[in-house]
Amino acid sequence: MPDLLYKASIAVAPRLYVVLSSLWFGTCRLEVRGQENFDKMLAHGSGVAPFWHYSVFYMLYHLRKYSGVAMVSASKDGEYIARVAHLLNFETVRGSSNRFGVRALKGMVDQVRLGKNAGIVADGSQGPPLKAQPGAILVAAKSGAPIMPIAWAAKRYKAFYSWDRTIIPMPFSPMILEYGELIWIEPEQTAETVEQCRQQLEAALNSMYRRLWREFGRDGH
Fold it and tell me: I need a surface site. Which of 112, 210, 215, 219 has the fewest CB within 10 A?
């Protein structure tokens, strides 16, 4: 019976979510900043777009218009996210830092080399929150694509009781989304240079994160 319920929910829930979330998020009043950075990334052919895990639901909706690939957890629960991603025009590579990580990173590199933009949750599937993992750095180094960090904030939102307090913006809420300046990663990397680049990415994401949330009178979400 549990397997039957899971199969039924996995067939219905993602489709229902995509319909409802598109109606929901479509009401938000979005201000986009840094469009010139996005244009530069597209002009290159492909890019790596890392963002914090708290923003994953809205980011899948926002980036649905572009040819992209997303890394999704290989867990059973990750199947829901994978199916939502497929319905929103994303290819998916299954894996995480704890499971099939090397295989997943190789799959992401292959897809970026084919011209797809890679959406990567910078703090991973298990955190800690707002602390970048090296995945985006490794994909950029191996593919030759630039990194473009993304962050957003909303005036009104709903937070869930998860490790990262994942949020969704409330209907009709004002929002600000920023495409950050491109970060270019040298192809030859050592453990030391990967760590330096990881810290650079983390600092860029957190600088954007804090700046945007402060415009709504908060230190963060």
Answer: 219
Q: What is the DSSP string of 101-138?
A: HHHHHHHHHHHHHTTPEEEEETTTTT--TT---THHHH
**Longest distance between any two alpha carbons in the chain, whole Å:** 52
Percentage of the chain modeled with pLDDT above 90 = 68
- d(CA 72, CA 83) in angstroms, rounded, equals 10
Helix, strand or coil for residue 221? Answer: coil
| Consecutive H or E run containing 39 | helix 35-44
* CA nearest to 122, candidates 139, 99, 100: 139
CB 142 within 8 A of CB 186: no
Separation of alpha carbons 197 and 23, rounded Å: 38
Rounded CA separation 70/72 (Å): 6
The closest alpha carbon to 48, from 154, 204, 220, 163, belongs to 204
